[in-house]
Amino acid sequence: MPVAASAVYFLNLRGDVLINRLYRDDVGGNMVDAFRTHIMQTKELGTCPVKQIGGCSFFYMRISNVYIVIVVNNNANVACAFKFVVEAVALFKSYFGGSFDEDAIRNNFVLIYELLDEIMDFGYPQNLSPEILKLYITQEGIRSPFSSKLTDKPVPNATLQVTGAVGWRREGLVYKKNEVFLDIVESVNLLMSSKGSILRCDVTGKILMKCFLSGMPDLKLGLNDKIGLEKEAQLKSRPTKSGKTIELDDVTFHQCVNLTRFNSEKTVSFVPPDGEFELMKYRITEGVNLPFKVLPTIKELGRSRIEVNVKVKSVFGVKMFALGVVVKIPVPKQTAKTNFTVTSGRAKYNSSIDCLVWKIRKFPGQTESTLSAEVELISTTTEKKSWTRPPIQMEFQVPMFTASGLRVRFLKVWEKSGYNTVEWVRYITKAGSYEIRC
């Protein structure tokens, strides 16, 4: 449910009303007095940004030396209300030259009232984009002498922008070389038992894009996801191609993606923003290709010595390699001395985190490396406490490899002028929470 705000108040730290706007008639005029009495004049100020007084709810946030208070008389969306406050403050700052405080509000009463009428209608948030609002609210705010002058360029084609058709991209962009950079970045989250069985495993990924394209291009992205391939085969009346398909979970898109077309054709089509942006996020829980296997063996020899043997195998292709591999092997706090033998990389004992830190700068595919260590402990006369053995942790980054198996089948760019486009696609897999119990 949207905000459906009944009133918005701007108060200073003393509780004086700087400016207010009533959007509905379902609350009384003494709402600000209730806020002062029950929130500002008590110790509850700052403990919780949501307070219910009587039949009304107060959502408030402090920005600089100003409190912005939204009063609602129904079951409103709290997250939407605070998102509105954040976006509204960003809008005001763009008009005031980067400052938002009591003085800026007092110097721009007329402009703020005009903006409040545009960004909220009968208590429901509207468009808060500074680029779009500046197309028809051209009045400049009184800027602070310490703020830098804004260099925002006017956006042409006001009708297109105001209707929200392509509010994230302006027309008239021209590049000498039209390029698209696409990165699939995945994080592997793993928890493995000491016996080698997988307790938890999933992949969280995101598709990052950087577009330097002229005009108003229309892009179409094809992935090897199961639903998309089945829909494409259905539309073209042909059997689904063999090969690995991916089931994507919890998919979220950038606002530029045409959701209607995605729901009907399962195709990611969009008019991209200019520059860098995040196209989509996803999660995968089945069919994960682990880039590394870790085989630890830790033996406690009495109270004063531990033997550690850790073997790390790379499972990805032989032509690939991992960068910045770090293996953190926990040891007891009473560690006094360590001796290492590694087949590759370097290892040392880090007393601040109670770990043996093994670093391998470059780890080729289909190879294995081994660490052997003898750990001497400080002998104590007190009763020995059992060592809990925290899990081994790994950090790494594998270029041109995806743990999910996700691949870009095609990336098509269409623009009415018909220019040629250079597409660059890159895959990166890194460790999220990669833990192996020992």
Which structural class fits the helix and strand makeup?
alpha+beta
Q: Please give the oligomerization state of what you see.
A: single chain
Cα distance spanning the termini? 48 Å
- In percent, how helical is the residue content? 10-25%
CATH fold topology of the largest domain? Beta-Lactamase
Q: What is the typical, i.e. mean, pLDDT?
A: 84
Shape: globular
Strand content: 35-45%
The major pleated sheet works out as: 9 strands, mixed
Number of separate strands: 23
Q: Mind telling me which CATH architecture of the largest domain this is? A: 2-Layer Sandwich
Structural domain tally: 3
Low-confidence stretches: 146-164
Membrane topology: Peripheral membrane protein
GO cellular component, one term: plasma membrane
Protein name: AP-2 complex subunit mu
Domain MHD: 177-437
Tell me what you see in this structure:
There is one protein chain. The chain is an alpha+beta fold and 438 residues long. The chain has three domains: 7-134, Beta-Lactamase; 179-286 and 405-424, Mu homology domain, subdomain B (Immunoglobulin-like), CATH 2.60.40; 292-399, Immunoglobulin-like, CATH 2.60.40. It is built from eight helices and 23 strands. It has helices spanning 31-40, 78-96, 102-107, 109-119, 130-133, 158-162, 226-235, 259-265, and strands spanning 7-12, 17-22, 50-53, 56-63, 66-72, 120-121, 124-125, 179-192, 198-212, 218-223, 249-253, 268-270, 275-284, 292-301, 305-314, 321-330, 335-342, 346-350, 355-364, 368-377, 392-399, 408-414, 422-436. The chain has a nine-stranded mixed β-sheet, with no helix packed on it. Strands 2-1-5-4-3 form a five-stranded antiparallel β-sheet. A four-stranded antiparallel β-sheet has the order 14-15-20-17, with no helix packed on it. The two termini are 48 Å apart.
